[in-house]
Write a structure and sequence with these properties.
The complex is a heterodimer of chains A (449) and B (272).
Chain A: E1 18-27, E2 30-40, E3 45-49, H1 56-64, E4 71-76, E5 79-80, E6 91-94, H2 106-116, H3 121-134, H4 150-163, E7 168-172, H5 180-197, E8 200-204, H6 208-214, E9 217-222, E10 225-230, H7 232-237, H8 242-247, E11 252-260, H9 296-304, H10 307-310, H11 330-333, E12 341-344, E13 352-354, E14 365-370, E15 376-378, E16 386-397, E17 401-408, E18 413-419, E19 434-439, E20 445-448
Parallel strand pairs in A: 3-8, 3-9, 6-7, 7-8
Antiparallel strand pairs in A: 1-2, 1-4, 4-5, 9-10, 11-12, 11-14, 12-13, 14-20, 15-19, 16-17, 16-19, 17-18
Helix pairs in contact in A: 2-3, 2-4, 3-4
Chain B: H1 6-30, H2 46-53, H3 55-88, H4 95-107, H5 110-123, H6 130-154, H7 158-166, H8 171-199, H9 203-208, H10 216-225, H11 230-269
The chains are: A alpha+beta (449), B mainly alpha (272).
Bound molecules: adenosine-5'-triphosphate (ATP) and magnesium ion.
Chain lengths: 449, 272
């Protein structure tokens, strides 16, 4: 791990720039923001994600000063904002509706805030030109907002909010109307601005890829609450609820009942003697006398196929290190990791082995979340602990990827994403084929419920 | 398109004849050379000359113009403010009552408005003259202005004002720099409406005027009681022309500019 990771939220000495303290916002009976408490730190790129109507814009409007919280408090740099009007806050907002001034030219729209600051003419002109260049609007400076395209308008709105170089910038879906190329370029521009000026960004987006690209942290909202706040990779790899797993990216959800797997008795051994405790690893389950027996399939695998490398299975199995970021080599992949849980997901099928599941969940109804790209599809049963039979129902071709929709026997439909290495014509799996969907014992996340 | 039908054509002709025949007769006879109003004696613009040389008429015209300009200007300011507050203030207790009260004078019989103003002026001991007419006209034309302006403000996107505040404007600056330029067509047409209303008002003016200030409608009315003269016809024609121009300008300004502004605004705020 790098030492210079930007993570002020982990530093207890760091003072947050923005503090939401038990903020509730009601519109009549309707609760738009529900007892929300959240810190946002200086220089952060904080992304808000959530379905339409979950309160993202309302949160922004409270920050900008257009709505007063019904209950609770907002602090910016430690200062209570309750009685500070919008024009006295060092905050600029880019409106979801753009709110461009229809009677002013593009140039004057961008210069509007600078003129209010009473800057001299040359400074204003230089700054406006800079913004025009940045957003590639040079050619449209003299036009009125109704004489330019939707994407150009969005860029004017962005330029107008950037022009004053505020300490805190609120962007409400700033790039939605741009084409992919321009959007990516602008994302990098924003990150660049952020790096150069140290501006704090709070950004609403419906584009998860965008949130993943630009954000230091992502907050997933639902009905006025923040469900999870985490770094992009964490939110993708370790969602804390079915809601988040389902909302971020594509996911397969397999429901079932958890059962604790046997407990490791001996300490880590020679297989990977250098390993330090792995953050992702399953906590060693408490030793229980009646713990379930090792997975028979795994034992067979080790004793018959892999003993040249690993030796016969010891009567007391050893705990294996939890998965690392890099894909394990096939030889190391095969020994089934111990610990975790077994998921009984369908009658007549062996349980799914989830080595990183929390054994505390034993007995509970749980859902296994599996990303489509972590699944493999094959015509013959592969040598992995988790292989589920099914039938191909549909194949979606996305250019670089193909998505197979597989109906598991007695189970749910799952999506399997495969990189298209071969030309499409040479694909050997097709509609109605009986296939095996397989995945490693650590590639899923077990979620309650 | 429906096909031409004799019934439609007749109805149309009759309707318009009913509306405009009296005025047409008045206009035609204003160009009559004869001293007698009802006897046609050839075309002449003589009476227009007479009107323009008539000291009394010119005085009355000057008073009327003064009253109309001042009262419509004050009414525009007050009416716009009232409209702004009523549209923007959100819900406050008695809001419906307030907006109802703004519109009530529109349907109030003029006689009653005039009479109550007269009583007020006598009560506070204000000498009746130009000032009292101005006040009276301001009172009743303000309602018209506020109706016109508030219908524009209702469709005005409030986030534009918020954006102005966000960029550092005080609320007043936001109004002056953003709201006012955008609703300007409605304000202008409100002013024109107030102006023409004041120009041709007889009832309220005659209640609230004094001997020192005679407006043109009052002058014409009293002159006609002594008998219609071709001079009056000419004067009335001039007034018809002024009012027509005023009304047409007002409606053009409202329609064209408001339509264009609304479109600008819609396009500006909405992604394609
Ligand atoms: N002024 C208001 N009066 C009443 N309800 C409101 C008002 N403003 C917002 N709401 C409601 O509050 C909820 C949250 O609105 P908000 O605009 O914050 O949603 P959002 O998360 O930004 O959605 P989107 O992604 O569609 O922009 C919505 O259900 C909305 O209907
Ligand atoms: Mg929104």
């Amino acid at each position: 791990m790098a030492q210079t990771v930007f993570a002020p939220w982990d530093d207890p000495n760091e003072k947050p720039l923005i503090q939401f303290k038990n903020v509730t916002k009601r519109f009549g009976e309707f609760i738009a923001i529900d007892d929300l408490t959240q810190d946002i730190y200086s220089k952060e790129f904080f992304a808000l994600l959530g379905p339409s109507g979950c309160g993202k814009t309302t949160m922004m409007r409270i920050l900008a000063g257009f709505e007063t919280p019904t209950e609770g408090q907002i602090l910016i740099s430690g200062q209570d904002m309750s009685h500070v009007p919008p024009n006295k806050r060092a905050v600029n907002m880019m409106f979801q509706s753009y709110a461009l001034f229809p009677h002013l030219s593009v140039w004057d729209n961008i210069a509007f805030g600078l003129k209010r600051e009473g800057k001299d003419k040359d400074t204003i002109a230089a700054r406006v030109e800079e913004m025009l260049r940045l957003t590639r609007l040079d050619r449209f400076a003299k036009r009125k907002p109704h004489q330019i395209s939707g994407g150009q308008r969005q860029r004017v709105a962005l330029a107008r909010s950037l022009a004053k170089a505020p300490k805190l910038l609120l962007l409400d879906e700033p790039l939605g109307a741009l084409d992919k190329k321009l959007r990516q370029d602008t994302q990098f521009e924003l990150m660049d601005i952020q790096e150069k000026t140290g501006t704090t960004f709070v950004i609403v987006t419906h584009d998860q890829e965008e949130a993943m690209t630009v954000a230091s942290r992502v907050a997933v909202m639902d009905e006025g609450k923040i469900v999870q706040v985490a770094t992009p990779d964490e939110i993708y790899e370790a969602p804390n609820s079915i809601y988040v797993a389902d909302f971020i990216g594509d996911v397969n959800l397999i429901e079932g009942r958890a059962e604790a797997r046997m407990s490791p008795a001996t300490p880590r051994d020679q297989i990977e003697p250098t390993t330090t405790p792995d953050p992702e690893g399953a906590p060693p389950p408490p030793a229980k006398p009646d713990a379930p027996q090792p997975n028979a399939y795994g034992e067979w695998l080790q004793n018959t196929l892999l003993f040249p490398f690993l030796g016969k299975r010891a009567p007391n199995p050893k705990e294996l290190p939890a998965p690392s970021e890099t894909k394990p080599t096939p030889a190391l992949q095969s020994p089934v990791k111990t610990g975790g849980i077994a998921l009984h997901w369908a009658d007549g099928h062996p349980p799914i082995v989830v080595a990183n599941g929390d054994p505390q969940l034993a007995g509970a109804a749980v859902t296994l979340a599996l990303r489509p790209e972590k699944l493999n599809i094959a015509k013959n049963k592969p040598d992995t602990p988790n292989a589920l039979p099914g039938t191909v129902i549909d194949i979606g071709y996305l250019g670089n990827l193909s998505t197979y929709h597989v109906q598991l026997d007695n189970g749910p439909m799952v999506k399997v994403q495969v990189t298209n290495v071969r030309r499409i014509a040479r694909r050997d799996i097709t509609w109605e084929d009986a296939v095996w969907v397989s995945f490693s014992e650590t590639s899923g996340v077990v979620l309650k419920g | 398109m429906t096909r031409f039908s004799w019934f439609n054509a007749t109805a149309l002709t009759l309707g318009f004849a009913f509306l405009y025949l009296p005025m047409i007769i008045l206009v035609v006879y204003s160009f009559n050379a004869s001293q007698l109003v009802t006897v046609w004696a050839g075309f002449s613009t003589r009476w227009y000359g007479e009107v323009l040389r008539n000291e009394e008429f010119l005085n009355a015209a000057w008073v009327t113009l003064k009253v109309a300009v001042i009262s419509s200007s004050i009414a525009t300011v007050l009416g716009t403010m009232a409209a702004y507050v009523l549209v923007r203030a959100g819900r406050f207790s008695g809001r419906t009552l307030f907006s109802g009260m703004i519109y009530a004078p529109l349907v109030m019989p003029e006689v009653i408005t005039g009479l109550s103003l007269l009583l007020l002026f006598i009560g506070i001991g204000l000498d009746r003259g130009v000032l009292t007419i101005v006040l009276a006209h301001t009172t009743f034309s303000m309602c018209y202005v506020s109706v016109v302006v508030s219908s524009r403000l209702i469709s005005f996107d409030q986030s534009l004002e918020e954006a102005a505040l966000d960029l550092g404007c005080s609320p007043f600056e936001a109004f002056r720099l953003v709201t006012l330029p955008i609703i300007a067509p409605a304000v202008i047409s409100g002013w024109l409406l107030a102006f023409t209303l004041s120009l041709d008002d007889l009832v309220i003016a005659s209640f609230t005027t004094g001997p020192s200030a005679t407006t043109l409608p009052i002058k014409i009315f009293s002159a006609v009681r002594l008998g219609v003269s071709p001079e009056i016809n000419a004067l009335s024609t001039i007034m018809i022309a002024i009012v027509t121009v005023g009304v047409i300008t007002a409606s053009l300004v409202t329609k064209q500019a408001a339509v264009r502004q609304a479109r600008d605004e819609q396009l500006a705020e909405r992604p394609l």
